[in-house]
Amino acid sequence: MTIRVLLADDQPLVRGGFRVLVESAEDLEVVGEAATGLEAVELTRATAPDVVLMDIRMPELDGLAATRLITAESAGARVLILTTFEIDDYVFQALRAGASGFLGKSAEPRELLDAIRTVYGGDALLSPTATRSLIARCLAQPDRVPSHVPGRLATLTEREREVLVLVASGLSNEDIAERLVVSPHTAKTHVNRAMTKLGAHDRAQLVIIAYETGIVRAGTG
User: Fold this and answer.
1) What is the dihedral of CA 116, 173, 77, 53, to 10 degrees?
2) Which CATH code for domain 147-212?
3) Same CATH fold assignment for domains 3-121 and 147-212
4) Which end of the chain has less Cβ packing within 10 Å, N or C?
């Protein structure tokens, strides 16, 4: 299956470089290029991409607002944030807006291609250690801690809660399987059930929920 990718960056040379890189992979294809956040939203509606590579700082509509609209309107589109600074407050906000992960622009070409595949598959959170550190840092600030919502966890089984904590700690399905002494398939099943019950479309959202609800706290794990 070919993964359809939409490029959103206000710099033509950057988009051109991404296009050449993405189209060098047999399983990836570029379905459109957006120079503004608004154009990214419109092209997502028109082309139905699987993954949107989104720059944070975009004219007309910034990457954060564009991400929020895209994830709200297009359930099948996953957003991968590309940023100059991997640990960036905007990245945290983008994850809350529905982005599936983020990657620094200093990443190697192969890392970007793998990141697209990872986000498309939804099986692993990008840069789990960095993401966990970012979320912990932001939630440690009193004015950023959201309301405690214990009701969101009520439907989880004890094993699903345990898996949620492990996902928020940055563990992959294979790592979780090893920790719980179960098969990777069983671990993935628990993760998927937790996502369904909590209304999360991928692991990045599970991490956000784990911190939002207090099941995992900043500075732990």
Assistant:
1) -30
2) 1.10.10.10
3) no
4) N
